[in-house]
Amino acid sequence: SRLRSPKMQRSGAGLGAGGQPWVLRRVRLTWLSFMLFFILVFFPLIAHYYLTTIDEAGGPEKRIFGPRPGGELCEAKHVQDLCRIRESVSEELLQLEAKRQELNGEITRLNLRIEACKRSIDSAKQDLLQLKNVISQTEHSYKELMAQNQPKLSLPVRLLPDKEDPGAPPPKSARSCRLRSCFDYARCPLTSGFPVYVYDTDSYAWGSHIDPLVKQAFAEAVKSSTYVTDNPSIACLYLVLVGELQEPPSPSELEKQLKALPYWRSDGHNHVLVHLTRKSMTQNFLYNVSTGRAAVAQSTFLEQQYREGFDLVLSPLVHALSEPNFLEIPPQVPVKRKYLFTFQGERVESLKSSLQEGPPQSFEEEMEANPPADYDDRIIGTLKAVQDSHLDQVLVEFTCKNPQPSLPTEWALCDQREDRMEVLKASTFALVIAPGDGQLLASAGCGMRLFEAMEVGTIPVVLGDHVSLPYHQFIRWSEAAIMVPKPRVTELHFLLRSLSDNDVLAMRRQGRFLWETYFSTSENVLNTLLASIRTSIQVPAAAIREEPAQEIPHKAGKLAGTDANLADNGDLDLGPVETEPPYASPRFLRNFTYTAADTYRAWNRAPGPFHLFPHTPLDPVLPSEAKFLGSGTGFRPIGGGTGGSGKEFQAALGGNVPREQFTVVMLTYEREEVLMNSLERLNGLPYLNKVVVVWNSPKPPSDDLLWPDIGLPIVVVRTEKNSLNNRFLPWDAVETEAILSIDDDAHLRHDEIMFGFRVWREARDRIVGFPGRYHAWDVHHQSWLYNSNYSCELSMVLTGAAFFHKYYAYLYSYVMPQPIRDMVDEYINCEDIAMNFLVSHITRKPPIKVTSRWTFRCPGCPQALSHDDSHFHERHKCINFFVKVYGYMPLLYTQFRVDSVLFKTRLPHDKTKCFKFI
Questions:
Q1: d(Cα 326, Cα 618) in Å, to the nearest integer?
Q2: Facing residues of 743 across strands?
Q3: Do residues 713 and 582 make contact, with C-beta atoms less than 8 angstroms apart?
Q4: Mind spelling out the 3-state secondary structure of 129-184?
Q5: Which of 299, 320, 540, 861 is the right S-S partner for 444, CB 3.0 to 4.6 Å?
Q6: SS3 breakdown of the chain: % helix, strand, coil, rounded to 5?
Q7: Which pLDDT belongs to residue 617?
Q8: How far apart are CA 43 and CA 422, in angstroms?
Q9: Which positions ≥6 away from 320 have C-beta within 8 Å?
Q10: How far apart are CA 835 and CA 766, in angstroms?
């Protein structure tokens, strides 16, 4: 055993020394396994037995751990919640499964419908293509048919007459001259523009003897006429100023000098001899002078001298070089004045007996050979009896302290003009007694009385039905004067007292219109003379004057943004998006036909709605009757409509014109950021033709200013001076009839603008806009006030956001009295009030307010002039000044406002009963 190896020795040592611990470990492992088996098997059985024994001891109803009959285990609170959750989840799963199956079925059906729609779209495209072809063929056929029935005619080529024009054969007698026999229509084609050549007064012999004041006034009027030409070879008419002469030549000498005129052409055809007078007595030196085929225009005519329809009766030239002072003219109200009627005059007897032998050789001898009729004595007795009766306060004087020179058989004027005007200002009616000689058709004395009466608003009463008043072929004098035959002088008092106040006011307003338009200045006298001849030969008037727009170059390219306020249009369809370039309103639709058809009516309407001015086209009485004759400023007939397809309001522009656009005119002054924002808001506005920005600042726009690109032209116009009147200049850049005048800080939605445009098309003669104002009478201060409070009544619509016709811009800039424009420049205010006064004066209609909004200023804009404290005080002064100029208050109240229920207008509960809706 001692011979064992070391390895074996180590192994045996290990067994010997470690044998006992290894056994212990094995015993411990066995005991641990037994204990684990006991705990895992016998302990639950013992616990179950123990617990079961406790439940059985407590009774069935007190069991806690044992099974309970009838599913009583779920009655425990926490178990009940789990059960409910399980049931709910199960139910939802079932519902979701059903929904999933339903959606799968719906998807299947929709896929089938999509396939069917794709097939129908392809079929519809084919049908649409065929319809387009049919429509194209139909339009082509329609155009061919129209070309056959109504060929498009071009204007005739004007053939100029020969310089050595022999003229037509002379009439049998110079007294029998009429237009058809003595006027050469070949020199005045319809398209000629009515050129007029005026002889220089220094070029003929008697020119140096003409009254210098008359000569100067005539020359100034000629300079302002649009018809005057310097080329005599193309002239339609030739004007010769023949008087008033200080030293008239003999008839034979004057006749010889007339024939020596360079373009007289042996008979003087198309010549007009103009005899202007500033006095109550004028020399009729053309009497017994052979004027050939030349017409005569003067204030005094004998019956055997006057050629009806050829010669013209002129009004006297009272205001030769001075403008009438409107502030000195009395107001048109009150209706009744101090005197019912007045007359001051002295009868001029004949100087020679009617038994004079031999025919009269001169005008004076012809007049002196006819004694006055006995009607003058009856007139004197009747008027004195009315004065002595004291039924009404009248003033009649038949003797003068200082009688003015007058013709024989005529009633001479008394005293000086200033004294006569003071009496007329206190008179309701003024008598104009015709000359006693029945052969004296017109006299300067009667014309002077007529002129002075209309100037101060006194209604003329003409005693004598044989006299011819100025331009009686065109003016309906019965609307401004009372014509009474001399035998009815005994009934005159009754007739004047029977007139109502409304009739008196209407005649007074008409007389003021005739005086102001045709007779007040030398320019009006000349223009009226030319308009009379042009109308007689049926030549259309020249286009109205337009202001040339001097454009300011600007950079465009900034993309216009989208304003969130503009997108809030609801379901309203604002109109089609114009795919064509902007188009102007049609021009000259009825120029030629209207001149021939509606002449008489156009001359006799004032103030409404549009009346004739001598230097303007023959404008229609009503917009429904005809189109204005002018450069793109015409009216078309209103009413009836076109199409007849019964389109809904949202889908059609409305009105009678199928295609029409409007121009935005925006006045601005050194507010570039505000202006750019306003221009961006116009992006996408339907029916917008262009935007004209009136740059009212002498400082040009910034060089780096980038203007928005709104898809339409933006024309920036440079003005000569900073004036609010520039807003209403008739710019030639405006090619549409409709103008939307808008401030650069006004904030309007597209739907509001479109609705206002629709309303304006149905009331083209009125201002249609958004901010309403009214005027009121201040009893304490006896003056008019401007009021901007919200009210059911209004009389003005401010042009800071309003539509109006372009023709009103012409009237405002060139026809409206200059003192009004001067006051606008003085206060830098009131231009909108002036436009409302003008339109109401012309139309005798109030403006139309649309929508319920009263404030249109954009939030965050710089402060405007209207926020100044003196703004309203200046507007009060403007209203009272304008009333003095017009002679009455032309503004009219209205409670009418046009709204659309499509805009879902919200009104205060106390305002809903004030308005009418459409």
A1: 26
A2: 667
A3: yes
A4: HHHHHHHHHHHHHHHHHHHHHCCCCCCCCCCCCCCCCCCCCCCCCHHHCCHHHHCC
A5: 299
A6: 40, 15, 45
A7: 32
A8: 140
A9: 213, 214, 216, 217, 278, 522
A10: 11
Going by DSSP bridges, is the β-strand pair 482-484/459-463 parallel, antiparallel, or unpaired? parallel
d(CA 694, CA 509): 35
Mean pLDDT for each 10-residue chunk of the chain (918 residues)?
Answer: 43 46 75 79 74 58 51 63 86 90 92 92 91 87 73 63 62 79 88 92 87 93 93 93 86 90 89 92 85 93 90 91 85 94 84 36 54 72 93 93 86 92 96 89 93 95 93 92 94 95 94 91 93 90 85 76 49 54 72 63 44 33 29 34 43 61 94 91 91 93 88 92 95 94 91 90 92 92 90 92 95 93 95 96 94 61 57 93 94 91 51 45
In 3D space, the residue among 786, 665, 791 whose CA is nearest the CA of residue 736 turns out to be: 665
Number of C-alpha atoms within 13 angstroms, CB side, residue 466? 16
Of 547, 548, 533, nearest to 618 by C-alpha is 533
Residue with tokens 């101090």: 338
Q: Which position has the token pair 């001692």?
A: 2
Which single residue is written with the structure tokens 């806009």? 769
Q: Where do the structural domains in the chain lie, given as residue ranges? A: 174-313, 339-351+373-520, 556-621+657-898
- Location of structure tokens 């000349």: 526
DSSP element (H, E) containing 641: none
Q: Which tokens go with 506?
A: 């209407």
Q: Identify whether the C-beta of residue 315 lies closer than 8 Å to the C-beta of residue 280.
A: no
H-helix or E-strand spanning residue 463: strand 459-463
pLDDT recorded at residue 636: 36
- Hunting for tokens 């199960």 — which residue is that? 90
Count of beta carbons in the 10 Å neighbourhood of residue 260: 10
Query: Quick one: angle between helices 417-425 and 444-455, nearest 10?
Result: 50
Residues with Cβ within 8 Å of residue 38, at least 6 apart in sequence: none
- What token pair was written down for 609? 């709605």
Q: How far apart are CA 802 and CA 768, in angstroms?
A: 6
**Nearest residue to 896 (alpha-carbon basis) of 848, 842, 837:** 848
| Residues catalogued as catalytic | 832
Sign of CA dihedral 355, 357, 362, 366: positive
* CATH homologous superfamily of 339-351+373-520: Glycogen Phosphorylase B; (3.40.50.2000)
Residue type, 439: Q
Structure tokens at 234: 């193309």
- Non-local CB neighbours of 366 within 8 Å, separated by 6+ positions: 287, 302, 360, 439
Amino acid at 151: P
Query: Which DSSP symbol is given to 394?
Result: -
Contacts of residue 328, Cβ cutoff 8 Å, sequence gap at least 6: none
Please report the pLDDT score of residue 715 as a whole number.
95
Give 319's contacts (C-beta < 8 A, 6+ positions apart). 520, 521, 522
End-to-end CA distance of the chain: 137
**Looking at the whole model, is its pTM more than 0.90?**
no
CATH tag for 556-621+657-898 (out of 3.90.550.10, 3.30.450.20, 2.40.50.140, 3.50.50.60):
3.90.550.10
